[in-house]
Structures are given as C-alpha cells and as structure tokens.
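As promised in the previous annual report, we have extended the structural survey to additional targets. Below is the entry for 3-keto-5-aminohexanoate cleavage protein.
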Amino acid sequence: MQKTGKAIITCAVTGSIHTPSMSPHLPITPDEIARQSIEAAEAGAAILHLHARDPRDGRPSPDPDLYMQFLPRIKQATDAVINITTGGAPGFSEEDRLAGPLRASPEMTSLNMGSMNFGFFGLADKFDWKHDWERELMLGSKRFPANHNFALIERIMVELGQGHGTRFEYECYDIGHLYTVKHFADAGLIKPPYLIQGIFGILGGIGADLENFMLMKQTADRLFGDDYLLSCFAVGRPQMKFLAQCALAGGNVRVGLEDSLYIAKGRLATSNAEQVRKIRDILDVLEVEVATPAEARAILGLKGGDAVAF
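The corresponding structure token record, generated without further manual editing, is:
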C-alpha cells in the first residue's frame, strides 16, 4: 500500500475530458501546462501525469512536438517523476496514443487496463460551449466505448515497458481490471512493484463508494500481496473525502484538474497546485508523511530522470 509509510501524491494536470469552457483555470497551452506542473511539484506532487492539448482551441492532441514544448521545462525546473498518458483521448488511434510516450521515453506512463463504456455525455447540455468540438466530445461518449483491448495493452507493455524501461500506472476502473494486471504479471510481461490506480465514479466503471474501495483493496491484496502499491482517486465532487479514506487505509493519492475542476463545493480550483496543497494538508492532519520524488523513484523502481529522452 504505502511503502516506507509515506504517501505518493500524483497530480493529473489537464487530462482529455475537461474542456476550456468548463473552467478558465484548466491548463491548455504548453506554457500553462509547464507552469501548473511546476507549481504542483513545488506544492508536493511527486508524480505529474500529463496530456497534451492543441493550444489553438484546447482540444486533446497526440502531437509529440507539443509534449516537447513542456516536458523539458518541467524536468529542468523540478525533480518530479513525469508520467505521460497512453490513454490519450476519445478518437485517438493506437499510433496516436503511443506517439508522445515513444518520443519522450518517460519514467512512467498510464496504462488503462480494459475497454469500457466511459460516459460523460451528461455534461453535454450543462455548459455554454466556446468550441463545437467540446459538446461533440461529450455526446460521443454515449456512442463509443473507450478501447483498451488486450492486444493494445500488451503492445504498450512490450514497446514502452521492455523497449524503454518505462513503468506503469495501472489504471483500474473496475475489479476485473485487477485480474487483467494479474494476467500480464503471470505472463511475465510486467514486474513488481505494481502501482495500481483505482479510479472511482466514472459512469461505466466502479462507483465512488467506500465499500467499493475496500473491495478493490482486498482484491488487490489477495492478487498481489506485498508486490503492489494502491493509489486512488474519485472524479468530481467526492474527490477529497475519498482520498482521505484511501490514505487512512494506507493508500496513495491522486489529485488534479484532470480528475476534478473543484477545490470545494461550488468553487473552481484556480490551479492544480491548490488541489495538491489541500490534499497535503489533509495528509498532515492524518499524520501521513508525503514521499519526495526521489523516494517515489526508489519505491517504484523507476529508471531515473536522466534516462528519459527530453
């Protein structure tokens, strides 16, 4: 759960589901992504989980050149572990999803552990959209599932894991995804320790209930024993309360504007760093120490910041 008794804070800085019309504070341009990432690291995030966006209108982008406009800046200004998405965004091809990570050869990437319905279409009529693509993205989630088939998962493990020494944040949206991690572990394609990222509250995945968190923890304990770390996050409103429960149970935590745009009920977060500071305050009250980037690297067995390609 928490190796050495310290919690690793991950910050997911921008994502691909929230859009510019939802919050003026969502980082869009390479400069905004770099600045907010650096601030989040300074606030206490050991891992930064990153997507790229088209600076012209904020839509998700797989363009490796965009990644290279902010990754070197973050590395130069912080010691944080950089974790790049392989999930990308709805509509991305397999080549799109791998383009940025293969160019950057990062210490970590995310890795979604199963295809699923991933519904956020309920947001389609709740905003005045600045760009047509935003509402289309929302509505598309009602018609098209998120594709993370076994062949794609294996390809990522081989090309990035074996080919680049990259390790993974195994994104598990349901209990069955834990068994998928176990399948690939038994096949020898991945090695411990496994960073299991339990994701709660997505329509189509497991709900954000304490009972579901405990079921995920108990299942992971049975499948992986001492060979894993559990981190978690809940989308939207229950974010901070859920993370406090996770930390109390010995888990690690993830915050960020990818997961929730708010800092309190009805109040938008003004930055990723604001969310990092809040969860750090909660951890302090719970008397849970926070891991540094160097400690996170040692705990997760990462290759080190000097072995990346940016």
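The longest strand covers residues 194-200. The chain has a mean pLDDT of 96. These points will be discussed at the next consortium meeting with the crystallography subgroup.
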